[in-house]
Amino acid sequence: MIKVGIVGGTGYTGVELLRLLSRHHDVTIQAVTSRKEAGMKVSEMFPSLRGFVDVAFSTPEEADLKSCDVVFFATPHGVAMAQAPELLAAGVKVIDLAADFRLKDPAEFQKWYAMEHTCPDLLAEAVYGLAEVNRDAIAGARLIGMAGCYPTSVQLGLLPLLENGKALIETQTLIADCKSGVSGAGRKAEVGTLFAEAGDNFKAYGVKGHRHLPEIMQGLSAIHGAPVALTFVPHLTPLIRGIHSTLYARIRPEGRETDFQKLFEERYAGEPFVDVMPAGSTPETRSVRGSNMVRIAVHRPGNGDLLVILVVEDNLVKGASGQAVQVMNLMFGLPERQGLDVVPLLP
């Protein structure tokens, strides 16, 4: 059995990890930390876990994290990099759901997250946690910086068009028009995510620059093997869960004869958590709610030179905790679907 620790178990990504790992046949949850709630039963805070998770929150000092096989950090940015070196030295694998190990350039991290990186030496070793791109590297890794929710949808939506230096689309004029539910802001009290503020409303944010942009650019450039340029505009929608990304790419003359539906179907044919929808489909966020599935639809309006890619995912599952469990499975040589074969919720 894999002994698992979760640092920061009181947020939305923490409770999603608990939900998924509690039904994982190869996992035992050894420790869940929270300074504020230490001593409280996890199932007391989250009644949905009654009968499934029988542990209490403990402080990070009291939790025996060094005896775990893997520790997930479902914490604010900056926490994992403070604790990861000591855990790695003890032979514990680390999976960070925040941004501490996503960006390879510590100066970029400081620019976007307003804090200095405390262990930049580990950035070169950290593997980016997007299984569909880095599966082999993840399998041999001991430190993972998980992909963000928006970056997951954008990169998977554009991957077949850019992979291995393909020249099918213009790479300097890409557009990502993305929408997310309010759970993406985390489980905290904020005026902008109050029901009376976010309900019956729709707005863009981060238009001047969003911290997921450098992550997306880094990922797409690595996929393509050359720099790309992208305009990224996120929006807040009156949903609890879900991301819907509409991606626009101009087709180059060399790509005009390409069967893009076939290209996507063939690229993702062996992927357990990417579903390329039939031609003409318009996937809905509720079709992936509670699941680790990404659904993608490829459109070429009027058979013209503009490609429109629609991508939906659950921001808390494939965009965060589910993808982290998928990565853990790869790190320990388990079937990738283990603990994640969940049918989406409807309605």
Class derived from helix and strand content: alpha/beta
Number of helices: 10
Helical content (DSSP H or I, runs of 4+): 25-40%
CATH topology of the largest domain: Dihydrodipicolinate Reductase, domain 2
Describe this structure in words.
By secondary structure, this protein is of the alpha/beta class. It has two domains: 2-125, NAD(P)-binding Rossmann-like Domain (Rossmann fold, 3-Layer(aba) Sandwich), CATH 3.40.50; 150-315, Dihydrodipicolinate Reductase, domain 2, CATH 3.30.360.10. It contains ten helices and 14 strands. It has helices at residues 12-21, 42-45, 79-89, 106-113, 131-139, 149-162, 195-198, 212-224, 260-267, 317-331, and strands spanning 2-7, 27-33, 57-58, 70-73, 93-96, 127-129, 143-146, 174-180, 203-204, 230-236, 243-250, 274-276, 294-299, 306-313. α1 (12-21) packs across α10 (317-331) and α6 (149-162) runs parallel beside α8 (212-224). The chain is globular. The two termini are 35 Å apart. Catalyzes the NADPH-dependent reduction of N-acetyl-5-glutamyl phosphate to yield N-acetyl-L-glutamate 5-semialdehyde. Its EC number is 1.2.1.38.
